[in-house]
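Task: sequence design from structure.
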């Protein structure tokens, strides 16, 4: 993806809608980023997860750290829906974070709708080609 800018040091502050996805990355905030992203109320982070098996409590640590600002986490697992282990689901539930797992495109679209409504939503999106 080409774009006017890149994520600086892995983080773009502020809430941004996802303008486009595909070609191995995402467009948002008049920028493009190759790779996966975490969209949190505080900003968008580069996310070092390329496949669903790499989604762990450690990879979701920024979401867990923001639990007071996040009621719902949308996880886009790529082109196929892949369910997360029960232990990880329970960890998020214990932190007060609801979870919805879906394809990356659906997760990005749902995130945009909920973020535009100013809901307490975050998204962990695996990049797709």
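Answer:
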């Amino acid at each position: 993806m080409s774009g006017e800018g890149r994520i600086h040091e892995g983080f773009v502050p502020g809430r941004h809608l996802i303008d486009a996805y595909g070609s191995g990355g995402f467009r948002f905030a008049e920028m493009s980023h190759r790779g996966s992203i975490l969209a949190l109320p505080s900003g968008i982070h580069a996310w070092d997860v390329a496949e669903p098996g790499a989604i762990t409590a450690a990879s979701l640590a920024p979401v867990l750290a923001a639990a007071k600002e996040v009621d719902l986490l949308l996880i886009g697992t790529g082109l196929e829906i892949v369910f997360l282990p029960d232990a990880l689901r329970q960890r998020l539930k214990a932190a007060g974070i609801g979870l919805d797992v879906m394809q990356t495109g659906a997760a990005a679209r749902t995130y945009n709708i909920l973020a535009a409504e100013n809901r307490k939503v975050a998204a962990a999106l695996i990049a797709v080609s």
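DSSP finds three helices and nine strands in the chain.
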